[in-house]
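Risk register update: the risk that structure generation would not scale has been downgraded. Supporting records follow, first protein first.
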Amino acid sequence: MASVLRAVSTAMPRGVSTAEAARSTGLARPTVHRLLAALTAEGFCDHDHKAGLWLLGPEMYLMGVVAAERYDITEIARDHVAALAEATGESAFLSVRRGEETVCLLRQDGAFPIRSFVLYEGKRFPLGVASAGLAILSFLPEKTMERYVEGHDLASGHGSEHGQGLLRLRIAETRERGWAVNPGLVVEGSWGMGAAVFDTAGQPAWALSLTGIESRFSTDRRPELGRLLLHHAHELSKQLRGEHAFPVG
């Protein structure tokens, strides 16, 4: 049932058809329909009969509000995301690790008029795909990182550049610099950079990132963007630990 609910969540805000949910989960279509109907009866899903699509229901909203008191850092992070967008002119984001994926929680567009829409609120990527997921994966404990890389064939779904050898190279580069770079590997011409944000246990649980067109991420400019990302990621991590942080801006 959890995989079916995740399929609905991933398809928001459009919603998902029964057939799409079946393909996503690998379950038989009648089984998926039965599970979706049961979730709808309990308020966890809604069914748009006219469009034939399933969406998240009101019970999910109520549960999310309760869970947010413990897990949601968006209000604390919002100033950092806004400051990154203002300072760089690019689109800035906060993403969170959820198991083996990242989920975008916040987006703030900068002043530069040409934007990339690869990442948006609610968008999910596997760890290691896109700059936020690469930043988080790179700073996981060594055994955890290795187990993930060995156990996932990212190349089959996201292109040969996500093969294990090249992924390990990008992880090593990210560890050396402190910040991750996605050189147009998700969508050609759309670049991204990210830095991990650490929880109170010292684990990379979130990431701040920037995206934009390739010309805005030149070799000369990347170090400047990296320093800004690391500054805000470090200050946000300190805030989450209850330590004094410099004013955002």
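Supporting record for the second protein:
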Amino acid sequence: MRLLLLLFPSLLVAQNYDVVLRGGRVMDPESGLDAIRNVGIRGTKIAAISTAQLRGRIDIDATGLVVAPGFIDLHQHSQTPEAYRYKAMDGVTTALELEVGVSPVSDWYAAREGKSLINFGASSGHIPARMAVMHDSGTTLLPRDAAMNRPATPEEQRLIEAAVQKGLDEGALGMGLGIAYTPTAGVDEVLSLFYLAAKFKRPVFVHMRAGNVVTSLQEVITDAAAASVPLHIVHLNSAATVQTPQALRIIDGARTSGLDVTTEAYPYTASMTEITSAAYSGWENRPPEDFARLLWPPTGERLTRESFERYRRQGGFVAQFGNTEEMLKMVLAHPSVMVASDGIIENRIGHPRAAGTYARVLGKYVRDDKALPLMDAISKSSLMPARRLERMSPQMRQKGRLKVGADADISVFDSNLVIDRATFQNAGQYSAGFRYVLVEGTFVVRGGKLQEGAAPGQAVRAR
């Protein structure tokens, strides 16, 4: 049948499809296809990509629009219905919590089955396991006392590893390891976790230790090499800041030597994390100008020493401006760097990256600043993340591509209009320019509007 269709494409007209995306600029980063095509979808799969006319139950005129694989966000902390709506309106069809991870893993997946707007998945997290075993009082994402302030006893380490292993047994996509937030986890504890991940042949998604970037990179790359395990280093732009070129040189060298090391970046000059976390230990003694780099999202105020100390007692997420536009353009254009959001938002308050990462890359850095080509940006947002996971998750082999047989996870956007709208003062604003987004062949965004009641999202697990 496939040979007949190749020889006589007019036969495609007779095929009825559930959805046809007609006349769009189809861009597939795997094959390099960049041409006007019609896309036919049947059920949850792409069934045809053709120059011939197609007939569908739902016919969408995509003339003048880009038809791309749905974006895959490897680093999305907020995994809630609210957050998924922002993701969908930003072209994201799969959002994964891989840096911090979750624990218990099976409970986390069960809570989202059949209820999710977009696809979801997680790693087995060292941080939540450590918090539970060590009775940390932190109630949000990160530890605030025991799990960050004292070393784990040998028995606690055993229990932490057992919890992480249980999550890997239950299909977690890898191991989440936030060493910067558990600074009392010594080198032996960390290396042991790499060996644990190696037993399952799954990646370690790591937030390096704070401090000297070279030393921090050397630790995790050496551990990955010793354990022979894939390594993914999160948000290199905020972890390395002014040392990003040097960090990229080290990662490139490791890759050239045959190590499986990847990294990611988000398109903002400010980071954000919990003010009670280890990232802000000792800040009380910083000079006044350092506090002026901090912004408190609920009020939009820049902090002073006094307000910093008050909010640190209270708890909450704080933004820190520590990068430059030049550094962002350089890291986003680097061939081995993926796009990931590190998204955090709740009740419309958070970092704008939770709502606008992908539109910002496409609008500001591709169209306006011309820092990278459109096809590269699409690849960094879809194909490259899929390839990072496909060896342990067969589902990902059918995502991040636009080809016959692939999952119908598709983002359709206006490249002339796409842009982020979210700000630090008002993070709860949907991106502009995404006209249609399909997850597993179902519209979650149609005509630029969210589709109420849609829940086609599937769990993404390791197999």
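The chain has a mean pLDDT of 95. On this basis the risk owner (M.S.) recommends closing the item.
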